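Postdoc handover notes: sequence design on the structure in folder B. Input tokens:
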């Protein structure tokens, strides 16, 4: 999947697991290695810009995550070449909650841009202190400003603008129809953006982004499922047969003590859409226990703590903590 919703785990901070997709690695390679090699910038500038991109993406995604945590969702972050994803495990309870989760990302980005802007205005000496600081502050200002505005203003799915557009359409249309309108608006927007980016600004990144969005949106349109499916009080969020198949495979891997495979399947289940909370509980248990058996105790703890606190899980948490103390 082009917009892979999982990646290689990097660290867990403030209870939020952060991982990086392959595409994020490729972008970093462009900025740190390829552009300096082509003479577009120095290696030092490349490293500073890579740092500014990463800090800005993390600030944006942690904005989403902070509000998601407030609504008892279990957010995790995946860094991608085209921004990042804040995965909430299951859907927010209402459109109003969802709106606050979505808006929080660009809001943090704009706040960071404003903060850096203040440094430019009131402490220009700090910015001009060295080539390093001027590159760093310049990059932080532009990345946060541009990325927040792109996210707010472009109705492109799965960016924040597309999510906001979907929430807006849901006020007038049923879930499925609103999703269809959102995807069509997204496709209609991203084609000129891609062409303009490539021809006018020779930006391969923008062109690639447009192609990714186009393929992702076309596929979603073909599947015809609503983009956001709320769990209503009466009808429980039904598990897809795909989820059930994956869960059966994960259980089998657990019973065969193939921890690597069990953890992989668990992460995969979380990446392919929301599932009923009971099933999600089971997935956290599988990922937590399998990760513990692999010996990644610190990572295992972050998963086990999201699982229902049955005695088996409590024992596993204790085992991880003991193993970490011994280290
Ligand atoms: Zn966002």
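Designed sequence:
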């Amino acid at each position: 999947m082009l917009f892979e919703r999982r990646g290689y785990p990097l660290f867990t901070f403030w209870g939020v697991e952060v991982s990086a997709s392959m595409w994020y690695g490729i972008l970093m390679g462009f900025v740190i290695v390829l552009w300096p090699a082509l003479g577009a910038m120095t290696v030092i500038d490349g490293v500073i810009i890579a740092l500014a991109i990463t800090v800005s993406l993390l600030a944006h995604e942690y904005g989403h995550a902070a509000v998601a945590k407030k609504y008892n969702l279990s957010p995790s972050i995946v860094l991608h070449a085209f921004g990042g994803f804040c995965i909430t495990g299951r859907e927010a309870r209402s459109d109003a909650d969802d709106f606050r989760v979505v808006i929080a990302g660009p809001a943090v980005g704009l706040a960071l841009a404003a903060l850096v802007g203040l440094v430019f205005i009131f402490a220009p000496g700090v910015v001009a202190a060295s080539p390093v600081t001027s590159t760093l502050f310049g990059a932080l200002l532009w990345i946060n400003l541009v990325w927040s505005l792109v996210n707010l203003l472009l109705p492109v799915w799965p960016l924040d603008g597309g999510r906001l557009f979907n929430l807006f359409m849901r006020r007038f249309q049923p879930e499925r129809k609103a999703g269809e309108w959102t995807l069509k608006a997204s496709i209609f927007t991203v084609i000129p953006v891609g062409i303009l980016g490539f021809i006018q600004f020779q930006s391969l990144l923008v062109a690639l982004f447009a192609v990714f969005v186009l393929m992702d949106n076309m596929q979603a349109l073909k599947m015809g499922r609503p983009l956001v499916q709320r769990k209503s009080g009466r009808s429980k969020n039904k598990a897809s047969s795909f989820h059930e198949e994956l869960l059966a495979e994960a259980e089998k891997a657990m019973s065969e003590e193939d921890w690597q495979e069990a953890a992989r399947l668990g992460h995969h289940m979380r990446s392919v859409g929301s599932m009923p909370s009971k099933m999600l509980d089971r997935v956290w248990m599988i990922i937590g226990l399998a990760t513990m058996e692999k010996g990644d105790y610190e990572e295992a703890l972050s998963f086990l703590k999201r699982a229902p606190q049955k005695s088996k899980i409590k024992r596993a948490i204790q085992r991880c903590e003991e193993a970490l103390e011994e280290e």
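Context for whoever picks this up: Residues 60, 64, 105, 151, 160 surround zinc ion (CB under 6 Å). Don't rerun without checking with the PI first.
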